[in-house]
Amino acid sequence: MPPTSTPLAKLGFLTIGLFDEADPRRGHESTLKLIELGERLGFDSAWVRHRHLQYGISSPVAVLAAASQRTSQIGLGTAVIPLGWENPLRLAEDLATVDVLSGGRLNPGISVGPPMHYDHVKQALHPHTADLEDFGYERVQRLLDFVRGKPATDFSGVRGFEVFSERVQPFSPGLGRRMWYGGGSLRSARWAGEHGMNLLTSSVVKAEESEDFAEVQLSHIRAFRAHHPDGDRARVSQGLVVVPTDSASPEQRARYEAYAAQRLPRTAAPQGPARMLFAPDIVGPSERIAEQLYAHAAFREVNEVAFALPFTFEHEDYVQIVTDIATRLGPALGWRPTG
């Protein structure tokens, strides 16, 4: 167990942003209010997931553009944008625009691979190029190049009354250093390190060299840093599902525990052909959660986290959980609020 003199440096949370189809504004407003609360509580970052063709945030960049105008300090991240749904050039423009609007607070997290249920959506998403699309790392490289200022065209200069740039505009110089890769495999961890990205490691990994979640996640972190120009100083954020119950009502505690118990069987062994390994959700008083985290081999290797909020809960539940994370769990891990 690391000494308490090794404090957690950065504390964040991640939300899915669920909404009711009949009243989508209410759900999006709930997400924005949660981010505002996070800033008041001193969190270093707030992250949003994506959910295409579902009842969750489908446009995280748009949501964070709104959040950037309702906050002034908290970092704003995406965890993660699947690039199979995106055109890297257009996404680079959107990311740079929101980064400028936020004053340099955007932390874009991305991943690669074919879109979920691709056979059912490909004609709508890529009607003329569905079988030609490359969903590998080359797509990430294109985005990184555009964000980092490499030319996107050989056409530039003044044409009549208009001025054209060879690179994406607006250009936000610091954004390239705040690009995160959501990796769950050794190959992804190495690639992200070699290309100078930051690493988001979550509650899902590939069981490649072990079936012990913490051991697998630790190997990814070490492989990433071994291949990163910054070495041991390369940034890694861990994103486990953590639910403190310090100020929860008895009814809330019962629901949280039932939620975790329902999801526990999938953590017993690797799932599916890809052998995906899930971490158990951690529910309980903050002091006990802190003990479990300090005993976690991968947690001991990082100094920043973005704890994932569970799905399907109510706004009031998220307020309680986020508040307990900031006021009880964070201090138990040596963290101090921003501000």
TrEMBL record:
<dbReference type="Pfam" id="PF00296">
    <property type="entry name" value="Bac_luciferase"/>
</dbReference>
<protein>
    <submittedName>
        <fullName>LLM class flavin-dependent oxidoreductase</fullName>
    </submittedName>
</protein>
<dbReference type="InterPro" id="IPR036661">
    <property type="entry name" value="Luciferase-like_sf"/>
</dbReference>
<dbReference type="InterPro" id="IPR011251">
    <property type="entry name" value="Luciferase-like_dom"/>
</dbReference>
<feature type="domain" description="Luciferase-like">
    <location>
        <begin position="29"/>
        <end position="259"/>
    </location>
</feature>
<dbReference type="InterPro" id="IPR050766">
    <property type="entry name" value="Bact_Lucif_Oxidored"/>
</dbReference>
